[in-house]
């Protein structure tokens, strides 16, 4: 007897017994319940092992995508707050910026990419003895450089598009303001703001691993990411976009752009290049402490210390098998 169509071909329908068994098996394995925290810990460990197995060029390419996705979130957030100064309360402006910036992590997790900040959770696989120190450091280095390349590429494309001149230059004003504010932070302040940031980013990645659907993942990530941006915390990959964007505008924007700003009494801000480098070091170290120590190490101590075991096949399937495509 002919049954359902598969790719345009008629297939023989299975007998009733086989069909019932298949339905029973599928029903038994299907659940809308999220992973519990101990299962998330094991999933995070498995993800760390899979990331470490990826070839360097794959890691770098995925990291470029991660940097680009975060940069797109930053671009979206910059447009959102353009012209808001003096029109909206500070807190509301930051809330809007955070809500739109969350696009970046959503793309990283759902589309598939690598992000240095959430890769700090790889310490869980290392602590369980499933990942050696050299390989972990190598992955972090490749991903950081890939993130920088991707974020810088989007910053360059945005500048070349002339998007900073939109809204009578209001977008450019936001770009310059954000770059100046971030690049002039004191190193100590940048470090601690980086710690707080990546606690929330890694918690966003953590709860996303518990989700059963794309909708679940989006809702799980939205509030932690919105919170870190609204609170003014520092994310090294975001800064790889925000500060170069401001530098590009300051260095190469045409005279007409500056005339427009001058007519409104807006002077070019100071964006020191040496402070950019210092900011990147301080924020990167802070992000590592927040993610690796305050989230990864703490959850490893609670749920994985002294325990062994690998993920159930169903969990392996949810994590993308051996392909590593669910990398975030």
At the third CATH level, what is the topology name? Glycerol uptake facilitator protein
Low-confidence stretches: 1-28, 311-317, 320-327
**How many DSSP helices?**
14
Distance between the termini: 45 Å
Q: What is the count of β-strands? A: 2
The fraction of residues in strands falls at under 5%
Name the structural class. mainly alpha
Describe the global form.
elongated
CATH superfamily: Glycerol uptake facilitator protein
Name the CATH architecture: Up-down Bundle
Q: Major β-sheet, in short?
A: 2 strands, antiparallel
Helix content: 55-70%
The multimeric state of the shown protein is single chain
Radius of gyration, whole Å? 23 Å
Task: Walk me through what this model shows.
The protein is mostly helical and 328 residues long. Strand 1 and strand 2 form a beta hairpin. The longest helix has 31 residues. It has 14 helices and two strands. The N terminus and C terminus are likely disordered. It has a single domain, classed as Glycerol uptake facilitator protein. The protein is elongated and about 65 Å long. The chain has a two-stranded antiparallel ribbon with strand order 1-2.
Key traits:
two-stranded antiparallel ribbon; about 325 residues; Glycerol uptake facilitator protein; 2 strands; mainly alpha; disordered N terminus
Strand and helix map with partners:
Blueprint: E1 2-6, E2 9-12, H1 16-29, H2 37-53, H3 56-81, H4 90-101, H5 103-112, H6 123-127, H7 133-160, H8 170-183, H9 187-210, H10 214-230, H11 236-252, H12 255-262, H13 273-303, H14 313-318
Antiparallel strand pairs: 1-2
Helix pairs in contact: 2-9, 3-4, 3-5, 3-7, 3-11, 4-10, 5-10, 7-11, 8-11, 9-10, 9-13, 11-13
């Amino acid at each position: 007897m002919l049954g359902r169509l598969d790719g345009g071909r008629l297939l023989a329908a299975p007998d009733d017994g086989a069909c019932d068994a298949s339905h029973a098996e599928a029903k038994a394995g299907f659940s809308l319940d999220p992973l519990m925290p101990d299962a998330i810990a094991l999933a995070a460990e498995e993800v760390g092992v899979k990331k470490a197995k990826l070839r360097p060029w794959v890691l770098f390419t995925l990291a470029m995508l991660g940097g680009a996705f975060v940069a797109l979130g930053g671009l979206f957030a910059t447009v959102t707050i353009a012209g808001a100064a003096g029109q909206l309360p500070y807190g509301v402006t930051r809330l809007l910026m955070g809500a739109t910036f969350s696009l970046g992590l959503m793309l990283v997790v759902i589309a598939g990419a690598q992000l240095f900040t959430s890769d700090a959770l790889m310490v869980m696989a290392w602590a369980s003895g499933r990942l050696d120190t050299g390989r972990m450091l190598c992955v972090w280095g490749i991903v950081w450089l890939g993130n920088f390349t991707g974020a810088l590429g989007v910053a360059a494309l945005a500048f070349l598009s002339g998007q900073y001149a939109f809204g009578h230059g209001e977008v450019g004003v936001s770009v310059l303001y954000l770059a100046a504010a971030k690049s002039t932070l004191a190193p100590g302040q940048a470090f601690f703001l980086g710690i707080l940031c990546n606690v929330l980013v890694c918690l966003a990645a953590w709860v996303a691993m518990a989700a059963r659907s794309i909708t679940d993942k989006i809702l799980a990530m939205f509030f932690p990411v919105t919170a870190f941006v609204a609170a003014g915390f520092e994310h090294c990959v975001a800064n790889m976009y925000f500060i170069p964007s401001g530098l590009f505008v300051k260095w190469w924007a045409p005279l007409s752009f500056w005339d427009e700003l001058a007519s409104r009494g807006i002077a070019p801000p100071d964006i020191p290049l040496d402070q950019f480098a210092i900011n990147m070091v301080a924020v990167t170290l802070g992000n590592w402490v927040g993610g690796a120590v305050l989230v990864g190490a703490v959850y490893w101590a609670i749920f994985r210390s002294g325990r062994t075991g690998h993920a159930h096949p169903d969990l392996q399937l949810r994590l993308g098998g051996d392909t590593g495509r669910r990398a975030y």
